[in-house]
Amino acid sequence: MSAPDPGKGRPQAPSSRLLYLGVAGAAVLVALAGAAFYVATLTTRHEKAGGAIAVAVTPKACEPNTITTSAGEQNFEIANKSERPVEWEILDGVMVVAERENIAPGFKQTLKVRLSPGTYEVTCGLLSNPRGTLVVTASQNASTEPARATMRNFLGPLSEYKFYLGRQSTAAVRSATELADAIKSGDLAKAQAAYAAARQPYKRIEPVVYRFSDLQNTIDPVATYFEHRENDPAFIGYHRIERGLFDAKNLDGLAPIADRLVADLTTLDERVKAMKMTPDVLIDSVGNFTTQLARDRLPAGENGSTQTDISDVEANVEGIGKVIGLLRPVVQPVNPELAQKIDAAFNAVKDQIAKQRKAIQTAPQASSDAKSAQRPGRRIYKSRRGARSIAAGNRDEFQWHMMIAISEVSMAR
Q: What is the value of pTM for the model shown?
């Protein structure tokens, strides 16, 4: 949960549109590639939903508040009938199964997800609203269990990625502790410098962090999703510290919030290291996150006070690239063409970020555009439909490649 109210954004440099379009297209490719890897490990195909399940998010609840559907692949159409941007999440305990963020008032968004039998909770807009219930019944035509015969292909990538997660989560605790120490020392400039550095390890593992909804909502929430916004007592974490450091430029009251951040990141570190790493964790997490990054986060921006979204995106992309690199040996022998296209799309994203970073570094320091250029999103909010159309075109093209990859992997088995 980290896409704020688009209306709260600031002016954006024109070059950011290229960054958004580049990430939007590549996000679809990464998500589809992930789907190809994962679906290829399934014993049978998923059941296709005949139509989307309609859900309305009102100011106080979801309608309907209880949904019953069958296991397998399902489509949901979420309509925001409130007056504020909302998110809609499917939760299995504290774990996020799937989510759609930053649904603007009066708009609809769709969500496609593979569901196993069971009872889930559903978030309905504001975090203070009561949760809904999603009941998923067993289906003879759907299977969501990975085939054990192909698990050995993933053993190396899974082991290495778990090591990477543990290293980054430990770094997040260490850097947050340094931030807390700087705040307690009373040195505003030191604390401001420590803030940007403190976010980087967390952003690298954010594709997996979103699975822990309780920690996500205390470590990195944005004010939009709280009833009283910035003044809500439940609004804590990175962005609450950010507002104190860069908006108020005052350290008063930030020490306990920084201590809580360290405590929550410590809990995250423990959970990440204890987490059972499976192909769906490795692939679905990154596939879902890249889609969210392109669809929801870049258009709205996230760091309204520091204007350092470009640094966050760099860290996100670094974490996504780690997974792409680990999975390359899995797909390369089966479908070299698909692997090449994934690499090309990902390299295009990195090139766009490099161009954006260079523009920021060469812009005049006194120019307001130099600050707003940090933010890959505000101005292009009005052109999101065009960007999504481009992404949809890529989806159609690479859906075909995905099906080829699935069939070839099946024959290889």
A: 0.62
What does the CA dihedral 344, 346, 351, 353 come to, rounded to 10 degrees?
Answer: 170
Q: In this predicted model, what pLDDT tens digit does every residue of 154-200 receive, in sequence order?
A: 788 888 999 999 999 999 999 999 999 999 999 999 999 999 899 99
Phi and psi torsions of 90, nearest 5°: -105, 125
